[in-house]
Structures are given as C-alpha cells and as structure tokens.
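Holo prediction. Input below; ligand is 6-O-phosphono-beta-D-fructofuranose.
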Amino acid sequence: MGTGTARIGILTSGGDCPGLNAVIRGAVKSAARLDAEMVGFRRGYEGLVDPVTYMALDTTNTSGIINRGGTILGSTNKGRFAARTGIDERVELDPQLIQAVKRTIDQLGLMGLICIGGDGSLAVAAQFHECGIPVVGVPKTIDNDLSATAFSFGFDSAVACATDAMDRLHTTAESHERIMVLEVMGRHTGWIALQAGIAGAASVILIPEIPWNWDNVCQKILERDNVGKRFSLIVVAEGAELPSGGFVTTPAGSVGGQVRLGGIGHVVARELHERLKRETRVVVLGHLQRGGPPTNFDRALATQFGAHAVRLVLQRQFGQMVAYAPPDVKSVKIHDAVDKISRVSPDSSAVVAARTLGVSFGEYPPGESPLLRSLMEELSSRDTKDAELAGAGS
Ligand code: F6P
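Structure of the complex:
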C-alpha cells in the first residue's frame, strides 16, 4: 500500500449491472488525486467478515475497466447480509456481524466504506450507519426503481440491450407475420419495459403499474391486422400482474426472501396464440440485460458517482448516498433512499406519449383511452370554432 493519508474501502453488493467497474475506477482515480488510497472487498459484504478478503486498488489495476461489464470485486446477493430498514418490514442484521465489520474497518484503518448496491444492499448500509460504521452509498440497479435518484446506472444499458432485441425481433416478426413477445426484467416496476417498448416501437407494453386484460391486447393486434400490419411486438415486464391476478415466478423459488419473477412472456404468448390462432414466439431476455459493457450514459454517470462518493467520505458525510438530480450529482440520506420504490406513473408523460401514438397498455380498447378521447374532443371543438370564425369572416 502507498502512503496516502486516508484509506477508503469499497465493495459491490447485490445483482451486478453494467457500470460497477466504472464506479470503482472513478473512485480509485479521484482518491489517488486526493491523496487517499483504496481497498476493494471481494464478494460484496461477505469480504468484510471472516474470511476477510480484499485487494489494494490503484490506478494500475483499475485501468481500462471503465467499459467492462460485471465487477472486478465480485458480488453476492444472498447470504448473511440480508437486511431491510422499512418501518413495517425491518430485518435486523446479526449484531455479531456488525462487530466483525467494525473490527475489519479498525484493523485496516479505513476512514470510510463505499457500498455500491440496490435497495437491499443499501438497507444493509443504512443499518451500518445506525451502528456507527462510516458508510457512503452508491445506488445501482438495472430496474431504476430507487426513487432518490433520477437514474441509477445500469438502467440505460439494460434498456439499450432490450431495444436492440426489439429491433431484431421487428424484422423477423414482419417477415413471418408473427406476434413476438419480449419479456424484460425490472422486478415490480415497468421502467425497462416502458423505455424499451417506446424505443423499440412496441405495439403493446404490459407493466406492473397498469392493470390490463387479454381482450384489449387482442384488439390492438387485430386493429393492426386490419390496417395490413400482420405482425406485432409486445414487451412484457417480468413483474406484470396477470389479468386473473398474481405474478409468474420461476420454479427456482425465492432468493433472499424475494420471489424470483419470470415466465410471464410464455404465458402471454400461449394465451394470444389460443385466442387469435396466430403464430406467436417468445424471447425472455434475462441476464443479457445485466451483462456486457455499459452505455456511454452509464459510464459517465457511474464514473461521477465514484468520484462523488470519495469526496463524501473525505468530507466525512457518512450515511449519505450519491444520487443523480439532472444535471448534477448530489447526495441524500441513505435512510431516505431505501425502501422508497419508484414506479411508473400511469399518467406520466412517457405513458401518455406512448398512448397518444397508439401503443396499447392493454387497459383500454384501442382508441378508447380517456386521454385520447378528451384530446380528440378538444381538437374537434377547436375545428368547429375555427370553422365558425372562418364562416363569420367570409
Ligand atoms: O434487480 C435486478 C434484477 O436483474 C431484476 O430485474 C431481476 O428480477 C433479478 O435481479 C434477477 O435476480 P437473479 O440474478 O438473482 O436471478
């Protein structure tokens, strides 16, 4: 190790996503310039306790990783460090684990610990802070479901992957006049499905936040058939609830107390085939959305998060989490950030725009959304007024 005046720990926890290495590199490079040194713990929080596993990080061994997917430190999303901090749903960390973490921090002489994680991992960081462990959080998740940050890195890369899949499905769907169903991740939110659905020109987008029914999905497809478009692309979020109620989960069951979502794409494809007697195919994009290089946006955001997190540690602003408030990166209390899930609003401008262009969310027969109806009424009353004025002027 060098002779830096401060030493900072860093770890990546929970499901991986593109941009984790960019955060690590951003933190290490800025720490080096601020005369601090960095230690990276392996396998998430597990690296902090028996057996403590870490590596010294420097600008040499973190060079060239800005565009590399995954995490050079490894990650775990189950095991001993499972916590929740919500008022109704609090799960306490084992006090012996907390003591072990404190010992590691003391023995390595760490000024602070940067924890990069999603809501579950940040709940652990929040409990660390309550127990006096000097911690700073960095939000990551492809699901984009943390309300304290406008975007988490990883999301844009996941959307890019799903949009690329849509583009590819488009050409083959059109050639064979098929209905293609793409299932994307996102847990109990529809951010990935919504963005990729808009960017990939979906006809139907099914998300957890908007209840839908089979008849209306079928109607949209038939409406397209009527205008000669005998193919349709449907994006369905893994967490979309079925019209009959309930989620589709994978047989592997739950992980860390959370159900494993997955399989709704097959249910949608099967049902549409039965109802419409049309050829349907399904693609479950799965972990392709989490692998590979980050997009430019995610690289830039993740790098800024890394640099900002180091500054927070050096300023001893513990218990804070970096957050994106465009165009700036700011910080918020970790406590305020966890367990406040951000969900797609059915009245958001993205949903409204998509409906206006004819995308169906399966909740109204095509052309019958209240929004569209009021827009049409407004336009026709404007036409009438224009005609009256024109008549008066002639
Ligand atoms: O939270 C990220 C995420 O990829 C979700 O979108 C998905 O439901 C889950 O993790 C998958 O987890 P695992 O990698 O454990 O299967």
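The two ends are 88 Å apart (CA to CA). That is the main takeaway for now.
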